[in-house]
Specification:
With 259 residues, the chain is of the alpha/beta class. It is built from twelve helices and seven strands. The chain has one domain: Rossmann fold, CATH 3.40.50.150. The longest helix has 14 residues. The chain is globular, with a radius of gyration of 18 Å.
């Protein structure tokens, strides 16, 4: 999938992400803010902001938040929500996480939530996020992750791609830690959790075609017992749980800006 495909996919469904409980009020959002340790003088960057929920969660605690995304329709929705909620310290800007238009060491905090599974690779974006972070600054990322179990990994990523063709990969916790360290950051904390999903709203957000919804129902309900237990698949109504992790990584004081 190209960047254009991603923009078209999320442009069509931007409004649904404004009201999605998973994005607007997910349990990980509180962890992201806590891991960021925001202070009143901080300038924060939220990349792949989507409908802006993470940027607005940080806004009350910092001087300024810059929120970027590649999808203009998402930025329009996020800007409207910010105005409706009275936030005057959030600026929205179109930008690709692979080439952020900011000088080295600009931000005290960089966040990225529920987006990296769409990135064509992991290390490139992580290096960019690390580059714009000040020494001593905090990078906090949150996303769905694959289990360490190889079969579970392959199963859930196959499910995700059928639901949303812009999905690339739910990276494992080990892959995340490797990328963060390769970008010159120190991983200080990893918080793992479950993300409970209701099947109808999950496929509605991405506009998954009806015939593919039927395939996904079959994959989930007829999966081997071990996979049904791993992803807590339940029926009537159909629901399941993904694995999610929040990572806190810090740029060491005195480190070079470009690892």
């Amino acid at each position: 999938m190209s960047g254009r495909d991603v923009r078209e996919q999320f442009g069509r469904h931007a409004e649904l992400y404004a009201t999605s409980a998973v994005h607007a009020r997910g349990a990980d959002l509180e962890v992201v803010v806590r891991f960021a340790e925001p202070e009143t003088g901080d300038v924060a960057l939220d990349v792949s902001t989507g409908a802006g929920h993470t940027a607005m969660a940080l806004a009350p605690y910092v001087a300024r938040v810059v929120a970027t995304d590649v999808t203009p329709e998402m930025l329009a929705v996020a800007g409207r929500l910010a105005r409706e909620r009275g936030f005057q310290n959030v600026d929205f800007q179109e930008a690709d996480v692979r080439a952020l238009p900011f000088p080295d060491g600009t931000f005290h905090i960089v966040t990225c939530r529920t987006a990296a599974h769409h990135y064509p690779d992991l290390l490139g974006p992580v290096r960019e996020m690390a580059r714009v972070l000040r020494p001593g600054g905090r990078l906090v990322v949150s996303d769905t992750v694959s289990p360490a179990d190889e079969v579970g990994d392959r199963f859930i990523n196959a499910v995700e791609v059928l639901r949303d063709p812009t999905h690339v990969r739910d990276w494992t916790v080990a892959e995340w830690c490797q990328a963060l360290r390769a970008a010159g950051l120190v991983v200080e904390a990893v918080h793992e959790m479950r993300l409970e999903l209701d099947f109808p709203s999950w496929v509605e957000r991405t506009g998954t075609p009806e015939e593919l919804r039927s395939v996904l129902v079959a994959m989930l309900t007829r999966a081997p017992k071990r996979l049904r237990e791993l992803f807590e698949i339940r029926t009537e109504p159909l629901r399941f749980a993904l694995h999610k992790a929040v990572f806190r990584a810090v740029r060491p004081e005195g480190s070079a800006q470009d690892p």
